[in-house]
Structure formats: structure tokens, C-alpha cells
From TrEMBL:
<dbReference type="Pfam" id="PF24110">
    <property type="entry name" value="DUF7385"/>
</dbReference>
<dbReference type="InterPro" id="IPR055809">
    <property type="entry name" value="DUF7385"/>
</dbReference>
<protein>
    <recommendedName>
        <fullName>Flagella cluster protein</fullName>
    </recommendedName>
</protein>
Amino acid sequence: MSTDTATDRLDVSDGFDVHDYRSKLKLLRQTGDSMTLENRAELGCPACDRPFERLLVSEGESLTVDSPPAGRLCVVRTDDRTLLVAH
């Protein structure tokens, strides 16, 4: 998938690799099995196609969010990751 235009969306059809989007997502925080990223290029959500603000990627079996943002949340599951997308 090309990630050269602002209308692109995250492609999770064959898993998710953050390195495919490194120029469009800014790493905000990383812990042992999760990372929080900011969408700097108005990439579309893999669940609803709308641009999103933040992306939480987790490889863990469970996920806890301390203070979820107000607004739309989408959850996408790949074979080895869970993506929580905050709009």
C-alpha cells in the first residue's frame, strides 16, 4: 500500500507494521508491549475510514486505557496486535 496521500488509511489486511507509516505517525509513548502514536498526516482509520487523532497499538493479551478520549473509538484486531483508534 502506498502511504503518499492524505487520503490513505491504515492497511491492516496483512497485519500492521508501524514502520510502514513512520513518516506519518509520531511516536508519543512506548512501553513493553504497547505504543501510542499521533496521526500527523490524516491517515484514515482501518475500521471507519475517518481520519483519527491517536493510535494505541498493543501486542499484549489485555489492554487498559486510563482515560479514554471523548468521541469515537474504533477497535481493530490483527493476528498479533490490537489497535485502539481515537478520533
